Amino acid sequence: MNTHYTCLRSILTGLVLSILTAQDPFVIDSSLSNALPQSIANSIEIADVDSDGYNDIIMSGYDSTRFGLFIDVIKGNGDNGLSSGFSTNFITYPDTVSEFSGGLGNIDLADVNMDGNIDIYLNGSARSELLLNSSSGSGYFSESNWLQNMFVIHSNGKLGDVNMDGKPDLFLMGVKQPADNILNELFLNTGTYLDEDPTTIFPALFTGSSAWGDYDNDGDPDLIIGGQTANPNSSVTRLYQNDPIGRLTEVTTADAISGLKSGAFHFSDLDSDGDLDLIMSGWDKIQGNLVTYLLENEPLGTFSLFPQQIDFAVAHGTIDAIDFNLDGLQDFVIAGADDVSNYSGRINSLSGRVYLNNGDGTFEELKQLYGARSAKFVDVNDDGIPDLVTSGTREIGNPDKSFSSVFINNNTGTNDNPDPPSALTAFAVSTRAIFSWGAGSDDIDASGSLSYNIRIGTTSGGNQLISSSVPYNESNVGKRLIREFNEIPHGTYYWAVQTVDGAGNTSEWSQQDTLFIARLVASTQSLPGVYYSSAGWADYTEDGIPDMALTGITFSGASITNLFENSSGLLSQDLDQDIQAVFGGHLSWVDYTNDGHLDLAMTGFQISNFFGGFKTSFYKWENGLYVVDMDSEINQDANFDGIGDYWVNGGVNGHHWGDYDNDGDLDYVQGGFDNTYIRHLDVFYNDNGILRLDTNQTNLIPINPAIVQWNDLNRDGRLDLVSIGADAEQSLRMRVYLNNSNYILTPSMTWESEIFGVTAGAIAFGDYNSDGYDDFALTGMNGNGDLITYVVQNGINTFIVTHILQGVYYGKPSWGDYDSDGDLDLLIAGQSSTEGALGSVPATMVYYQDENGFSLDQTLSIDSVGISFSQWGDYDVDGDLDLFLSGFKANQDVVAQVYDNLESLENPNKVPNPPYLLDDTNITNGTVNLTWTAPVDPENANGGSTPELGLRYQLQVGYEDENNDHAVSTGHYGINEIGLINRPQKNLRNLEEGNYSWRVRAVDHGYSTSNWSNTEYFYIDVTAPSIDTIRANYVSSDQIILVVKFKEDFYLDINKEPTVLVTHPYYPDLGEEGTADDSLIVDKQSFNGDEWTGVLILPDDYSGKAIQIHVYGAQDDRKNKMSPASIFKTPESIISQFGGTAISENGQVSILLPQNAVSGDISISITGQNVPPDSSSYIYEVNRGITYLISDLYDVKPFEQSLLKPGILRIGFPDSTCLVTEPLNQYFNLKCNNELACAELGGEWIAMSEDDSGMTPFIGMVDTSITGLLPVLKMGGSQISVGGNPYMQVQIDTFGTYGAFVTMDTTLMSDSIDVETIVCQPRIFSPGGSGSVFEFTETNILYSLERSEEVTARIFNLSGRLKRIITPEFSSEPGHQVMNWDGKDDYGKIVPSGLYIVTLEKEDTILRTTVGVLNR
């Protein structure tokens, strides 16, 4: 517009207005009024709903004659006329307050679905409906499913773009029916649905109103709400300030804003200072009346009352403001219930007032609108000057008195449309897009009073980002000359701006401009620029957001290793860490200590503490800090020069981690020069968090430079090793070591190749063709001096180059699905030429993968860097891969830049579903094969997803016995390929016995991880079950209940029952003569997997009560079979008058008590002390030789029990054993059971039974009262054989601790028992009997000798007939001796009952005694 003409028009308009001041310009137009429906409208809104360029009137309210809520659209025709348009009604019921005055509720307008057409939101009278305009913009509306079905009363809802994404959101208050729940919620527009936002908490208000307005001029809409609580005598108002990310925070300092119930709010710049002031009217509890407050926003963001207020107020009303008299000032109208009672719960009358803005902070009443419930300004006749529409009733309850009126503004001035803005500028910064423009102009309003609408779409003239459809006298930008968006999708945007003047007139749209936003945009992260760098994304702070570690050389030449914490998307240095700086190497995040916390490994060059050289460093996590690991053998320093023998550097791929030995934890490989320039290729296995050199890997060829990588090339479940570098003969090539079944890395000639031999190179593995086998990208300088970038396919037995891209070196390739289409894309960065200074010709290229292979993404604008490092990672957790890039730029600037990816705004990468059908049933000893079913990776919005074979997996295995969920395989990984499994199974070996938990999750090409699967549990059991206890309950003379309790840490196989047999301890021949089976069967009663119970019936011919129990055949669920066990049992009590036998459970010791040997019944226990074999050390006594313990020591209890008659003690001992001689010890190793094993121990095999052994066996009793080296009472004894096993037996007269010994003592003497005495114990016995008369089935012939000599016993009947001759197998030794007679004659037949004479013949003496035999 011509400036001179504009000034002239302004002067003339001002003169006219001065004449017309305080005159009412509004005149009712009956014709136009009759075109309106006469129902009472609680709200009136204005917009061009049919896209014809003319304003339409939309009226809504409750009308009982129309059976509920109605919506009427009255179309503006552009010929000063109105016509009926869309009309609908909803059958419902009214509220109790305003049934006859239009109802409680409202409508609001916005382009909700962003199609360029105005939509309608309706609420009240038990309805909540979003009606969408037809796609053609014809002004016809239909109900949508964008909003949850709700029945609300006493409600109010307003649309506003709270999160500044261009899409209108909704605030709704009211009472939900039928539950009578108070609702105050924000519903965010997702583009397809209005979704409830639970993050903002509002007070529980209803019967009120709300309004959006940018009162603090920061570009986003703020919110004011007011109403009552459940207390009807309450009035509450809350003001919420909107921060830049759409978060509403209550303003607690707005003291001038009073609480209103049944109120109305309207933001408007009443003082023309460029910020929004506030008009509010309603019922105030404090005042106890209706009030209207005019609040000035001065200073910005602070409200205070205008000096002069108005004395008219309404409840349940409406407020609108516009410059209707064309003086550049905002005037306003208020309409509603001007007379109420019952705390505004009853409406008595309606009225409205029009106020003129005097420009000095005062407002003059210009017109009364009797009966008006609602009022709205609108340019009905299209003359550029606002008119007025009202609706109401002059008598509440009388439908004949309702009205809808149009008042034409007869102001004689003119108002031209404003001019559109110019100088449109748009640009993107990080994830923000900024649109700005120069001010528009107007013939009346100053530029500071103008408002603007902006239209932004992805097509020319489109509305996809922010719609051009805005209600009359409103603006989607406000008075600012800028509109910012955060995180809008990448692509090309078409945009234009129009000007809105104070009278609601709009300009034409400005000339359309465009903005292109790349998929990757530079973020605002501030990181130190580095080169010769390495970095890694990982969540080391464990807050669910990736952090970063960064190494390298800065622009100043200093080297750094810094950690950066990610706090809500902002990376800031972690100043609590103290990590020595390295550069030119490699960095890895890895939980090698299996504590669930990420540790840090680095190789590189270090200049620190007067040391300059290669350094390998491990840092362990300890309570949030990283401390140097000095335990691992990586720090071995054989020559103590302070420099680790395994400190190396091989370059950017100089080390790697992987579980090559399949024990669950991560092992380590490294290559390169050490500090003496010796080449290395070292494998360290993980030993419970300590890395130890694997000396079994003898096939590895040391290299430098070194590219090393673990990878399961052939998908056999074992990690193979890929290495690239030059050996000592400078042979530069790729070497592959396949991992065999013994976990030895062996060279594979079919994989080896000189083609892939590079220097200054780097490698990145990834399954780019999603066939389950990992491929790789390789950069560097080959042997011919050429720069290469190869994409190489895994051909299962070889590698095949499939794509040759721009060659670079001194860089790092990186795979990642940055466009979320389900396949891997590739970033290449580095030096692209060998000419010029290093770093002078940098290049960075992103290749996206499509059906044609790999294509360069030329839409990106990212730094070209050399001597560089790159890594993808979703650091802002928004569902797409962001990019870290560092290195030298061509201008020699040094950068470290994070690029935000905008793909997720429209096409976020959906996480895979978790794996399922976990199976851990395949367990053998300490090995388990874990399997699962591959999940589906859901399709992203644009259709892409990672194929099943392209998925990788992370495994977590815990050890329940240590309460460590990460004990075997950690569940905490960095964002890289470390720990990934390329098939849905994992074999774990060398597991300790115990209980384990495990779970697994899937990883797709976008490094998105699924939720963890359900946790499953398994156990490792390598120990066979054994006998815990056996109880023998003697319930009668011939019936015994046996209870066998098994010891099993896990589960017995209840389908495999044990076998339980019983034999006689000394006479196993129980069956008929000649039968093969001489055992007694125990009848099973029950077996519950822990206890076996059975009943034994002793046959009539069973001798005594002692039994030997044999158990075998039990196994656990892991098929570990028990070793056969044999335990001896006797009755718990020995009855004095009968005597009896007690046997140790292992059968090695027994005691026989004759009748009446004790004064009362007695319970005897015989328990071994389990003396270690090597503690039976020799004891040398002067003049007596050496004494050795050749059995366990046995406690016969009760201790110190004296016997009235001597008992017989029998102890088993080996007939031959191994004498081991050590420098400070000599002992018999009783566990060594053959001469060959003895020779292996370097021992001497000695036969105890041979006379030339020089050893004399005896039974000794431990007696601490004996002083000297050997506190043992030597009791002598007789050697006997029972079942082919040697025993010593001796008379005893007291209980205590006994053992079998051998001695070289030739002075072994007998004790005080008379040597001329012979005694039979017991005096009466029952050979071959059942024990029903006497338990004893044999008698013991007791005698003593002073020296070793031959003896013979003869048994005669009373007739003098010789029945049996007994000669000991061995010469009797000095001391107490025993021979046994089983009651049989020389022909093996049991002698008849009767009295028998026993004689004992020595060299010069015959001793005599008698014994009785009593048969059944």
Describe the structure.
By secondary structure, the chain is mostly beta strands. It is 2% helix and 47% strand. It is built from 3 helices and 100 strands. The strands form 25 sheets. Strands 80, 81, 82, 83, 88, 89 and 92 form a 7-stranded antiparallel β-sheet that branches. The N and C termini lie far apart (142 Å). The model is unreliable at 1-21, 1070-1076, 1309-1315 and 1330-1334 (pLDDT under 50).
Q: Roughly what is the average pLDDT, rounded to an integer?
A: 90
* Number of helical segments with 4 or more residues: 3
Radius of gyration, in angstroms, nearest whole number: 50 Å
- For this entry, what is the oligomeric state of its chains? single chain
Summarize the biggest pleated sheet: 7 strands, antiparallel
The overall strand count is: 100
Share of helical residues = under 10%
Morphology call:
elongated
Distance between the termini: 142 Å
Low-confidence stretches: 1-21, 1070-1076, 1309-1315, 1330-1334
Strand-pairing-aware structural class: mainly beta
Residue fraction in strands: over 45%
